[in-house]
Amino acid sequence: MKSAIFDLDGTLADTLADLSDAVNHGLRVLGCPEHDYETYRYFVGNGARKLCERALPEDRKEETGRLLDMFREYYNAHLLDKTALYDGISAMLARLSENGVILAVATNKPQDAARELVSVLLPDTEFAAVLGGCEERPKKPDPAVIREITDALPSCDKIFMIGDSNVDIMTAKNSGLVSVGCTWGFRGREELENAGADFIAETPADIADFILGE
Q1: How far, in Å, CA of 209 to CA of 205, rounded?
Q2: Domain check: are 103 and 90 in the same one?
Q3: β pairing state of 158-163 and 178-182
Q4: Is 112 exposed, middle or buried (0-12, 13-18, 19+ CB in 10 A)?
Q5: Which helix (H) or strand (E) holds 102?
Q6: Which structural domain, as residue segments, surrounds residue 54?
Q7: pTM
Q8: Closest by alpha carbon to 171, among 213, 108, 115?
Q9: Which of 7, 9, 164, 168 is catalytic?
Q10: Domain termination site, one of 33, 56, 78
């Protein structure tokens, strides 16, 4: 038996526009400079608090908590305005599921938002777990979230961690999982290669081919 644990942002869904809009809203309220869409590719990945901290000017970092509160309020009301699955994701997940692969999601996105996105975007896909960022556990690349998922799974011969950034590859390494990098996400091939991904997928179909062929 095999299991595939997926990152969410930049892996299953393109969430960057809604994330950047939410942070820029808070920055406007605080009177801070906003950032363009491309800049946010390198701000995301380590949770909402770190995203807000990175977006603030160096001399305003003490306002991270205020920005985080505004981000959460705005994002929770607009998290599906522009967000959509990447092409081929639904078919890839269906193929894995049909072949007996257990599916799960492990993301640093706040857990309530992650579960809402998954339920709306993938209503017909069965996930054994959808775990996001919360105060009770450290964020990826710490392996805590992976342990929580794998402890609840049946015994698996191989477990794969799929994501678009070095955070996901490091999470896989810290957890003893096979790492799969996705080039269509926020960071790109070079970061995945430098992080030492075991396999790099150019399309969602490549993920299914690799997992089912292992």
Answers
A1: 6
A2: yes
A3: parallel
A4: middle
A5: strand 102-110
A6: 16-78
A7: 0.95
A8: 108
A9: 7
A10: 78
Q: How many angstroms separate the Cα of 83 from the Cα of each of 10, 13, 110?
A: 10, 7, 16
Going from the C-alpha of 162 to that of each of 33, 34, 87, 179, 188, the distances in angstroms are: 34, 31, 16, 6, 14
Does the pLDDT at position 193 exceed 90? yes
Same domain, yes or no, for 10 and 67? no
pLDDT category at 172 given cuts 50, 70, 90 is very high
User: Are residues 9 and 98 both part of a single domain?
Assistant: yes
Structure tokens at 184: 């269509």
The residue among 58, 78, 98 that closes a domain is 78
pLDDT reading at 156 higher than 90: no
CB 165 within 8 Å of CB 185: yes
pLDDT at 43: 95
The pair of structure tokens assigned to 155 is 């015994």
Residue 172 three-state SS: helix
Q: What is the DSSP letter of 162?
A: E
Residue 137 pairs with which residues in a beta bridge? Answer: 134
**Closest C-alpha among 214, 2, 180, 11 to residue 98:** 2
Indicate the burial class of 62 (C-beta count within 10 angstroms; 0-12, 13-18, 19 or more). Answer: exposed
Residue 7 is a catalytic residue:
yes
